[in-house]
């Protein structure tokens, strides 16, 4: 089609404006990309890890996959707790552990190495008080196998100042509810001697809501007796108070039992449904549980089943399962519906609950590490 004189003049007049608009859009896109890369560079993730060739470490990297540093540990660890106010990382020994290692990640220097009090051992998880002054750790007393949350004063030489009874055996992961006063605790229910399990025939796990100020049990939830060998171990809490719990079953491998639960205070425990084809692959073992940044989506990993399951928690509906060989550690990114999963094979993937896609994060030194069970976003 031929262009007449009027059309040609109009096009020539508009061309500089179009060129300017395209240039502006390109600049905007570049600016957004740079801003995103800056955010990813500043976002740190920490995990306990075993180094290829031997030795246990605290290691952390940023959202671009760049390793920041690594710090040697005396033995295998479980959970890393971040104190972004002080710039500290607390590494908690794997059950039945005896050490708490404290590292200043901003200045790349070790700060302290604590030992638990006599006749106690650590259950692998820790939490800070809402004001950041006190460190809580889940522990078991060797005298009676009962679970406690031991409270240490970070401003007074890390001395133990309180002990809260959890109302069960083997408290594992525990978190604050949105009110900042109530603790929700997963009591695994397994009495042990070292790593040996002693009471599988009579074990009873529970989910407990505990008043941190009075040590009063506000609510205690247990599964039906037929599921008493389901061990509630890992959990996460959304901003609206919804809890998701990952279980590990101690009974027969072919039993049909709950492996992921949802709960809200005052209601009954609810099993989160998943396709039987997926459930049958999990080997009765779920690892980490994690809500995304919006609180709408939840992820639960199964390192033995090589799967990460995703749910829409508003609808309580199963979304998808994504393959991740030996994937266990989970952390939410700043993006809605997005998680990172770390694996025992040294990989880290970005997963999207919105699309069901995964993308490998290119770690600078990923071949050096075998990531342990948990991944912590250091905000």
Strand and helix layout:
Elements: H1 5-42, E1 44-51, E2 56-62, E3 67-73, E4 77-83, E5 88-93, E6 99-104, E7 109-115, E8 120-128, E9 134-141, E10 146-153, E11 159-169, E12 171-176, E13 182-187, E14 192-193, E15 196-197, E16 206-211, E17 217-221, E18 230-237, E19 243-249, E20 260-263, E21 270-271, H2 276-279, E22 289-291, E23 297-302, E24 307-312, E25 317-323, E26 327-332, E27 338-343, E28 348-352, E29 358-360, E30 369-371, E31 376-378
Antiparallel strand pairs: 1-2, 1-30, 1-31, 2-3, 4-5, 5-6, 6-7, 8-9, 9-10, 10-11, 12-13, 13-16, 14-15, 16-17, 18-19, 19-20, 20-21, 22-23, 23-24, 24-25, 26-27, 27-28, 28-29
InterPro entries: Quino_amine_DH_bsu (IPR011044), UCP028101 (IPR008311), WD40/YVTN_repeat-like_dom_sf (IPR015943)
Protein name: DUF1513 domain-containing protein
Signal peptide: 1-26
